[in-house]
Design brief:
Rossmann fold; seven-stranded parallel β-sheet; five-stranded parallel β-sheet; alpha/beta
Length: 336
């Protein structure tokens, strides 16, 4: 357990992927009267032991027991974008507690989304795997990759990540950007069309590439189903860097296997490792398909990320310390 002197106490829930550089950045950039408490062990008890002290929790999953003990809690800072499985039901009756997401990782996620888009559209994984066997067959077959430049990009969920992707592909590859947003009133120089959820079918039909960048809520779970794949172009490429269950798993598998769409790049999944588990199978054999690029929810895994990823968290710690409203607050009723 490592601490820093203070009156305001910030408790960091255990995260196995947190580095020493990440902790050092916080230690060196927080005011002296803020105490940082990093939980170093997995499990409920180490966190519960510090619950009563916490003014701010930097965490991702609440329990009833923690909230019963956290009598001084003022703010909860989720260290990434995403609100599903958070345990918001345990906040009932604690309306004074604010909750925020962090958008500091949006650039890293956006870069990964673009990488998936190109890898999938250029058929890189299959061609690479064949070349590793010394097999040049893919050079001579009739299976061709897809153009990206000048094509239409549909972004379903035009938030921080979607905006980053739009900027990269609009400016760099002259793509026409069609976006879907819950409240589509704003204008954006990188968007050619922005509509609401009632325009979803239009965008899915028109787009050559589709990026899923929505939060997972009760409304968006299973949003993209078999009927939606039926309306897409036969060479459409779909990218998911949001949450797996936004796309119905069976529908995605069948659309790829049966050639209803061209390809997919998927970073977010349906089944995840638990504890020290590392080998996990999905419910359908995606690994047998040649037209999918798969990464293990690793878009955030980028070098020298600590300072950038910590910025929103650090900003909100300071704002709470100054009795000001935190940024990027989530609506508990909407789920994002």
């Amino acid at each position: 357990m490592e601490v820093k002197n203070t009156a305001v106490k910030v408790v960091f829930q255990y995260q196995g992927l947190v580095t020493e550089a990440y902790k050092t950045f916080f230690r060196e950039n927080t005011p002296e009267d803020i105490q940082l408490i990093f939980i170093e062990e997995r499990g409920d008890q180490p966190l519960l032991a510090r619950a009563e002290e916490a003014d701010v929790l930097v965490g991702y999953k609440l329990s009833k027991e923690f909230m019963e003990k956290a009598i001084n809690l003022r703010h909860i800072q989720i260290p990434w974008t995403g609100f599903n499985n958070f345990g918001a039901e345990h906040l009932h009756g604690r309306d004074h507690i604010t909750v925020s997401n962090s958008h500091s990782n949006s650039l890293a996620i956006a870069e990964h989304a673009v990488a998936l888009l190109f890898a999938a559209s250029k058929l890189l994984p299959h061609r690479d795997s064949e070349m590793r066997k010394g097999d040049w067959t893919t050079r001579y077959t009739e299976t061709n990759s897809f153009w990206v430049t000048g094509k239409k990009l549909g972004i379903i969920g035009y938030g921080a990540i979607g905006k980053q992707v739009a900027g990269m592909l609009k400016v760099g590859f002259s793509m026409k950007v069609l976006a879907i947003k819950r409240n589509p009133g704003e204008k954006d120089e990188n968007v050619d069309f922005i509509g609401g959820m009632n325009d979803l079918k239009r965008v899915l039909k028109d787009a050559d590439f589709i990026l899923i960048a929505l939060p997972l809520t009760s409304e968006t779970e299973g949003l993209i189903k078999s009927k939606h794949f039926e309306m897409m172009k036969s060479n459409a490429v779909i990218i998911n860097i949001a949450r797996g269950p936004i796309i119905d798993e069976e529908s995605l598998y069948k659309a790829l296997k049966e050639g209803k769409i061209g390809a997919a790049g998927i970073d977010t999944w349906y089944n995840y490792p638990k504890g020290d588990q590392r080998i996990v199978e999905q419910n359908f054999p995606f690994h047998e398909l040649k037209n999918i690029v798969m990464t293990p929810h690793s878009a955030f895994k980028i070098r020298d990320r600590e300072e950038i990823f910590a910025l929103d968290i650090l900003t909100n710690i300071r704002l709470v310390h100054e009795n000001k409203d935190p940024i990027n607050q989530v609506d508990l009723k909407l789920g994002y």
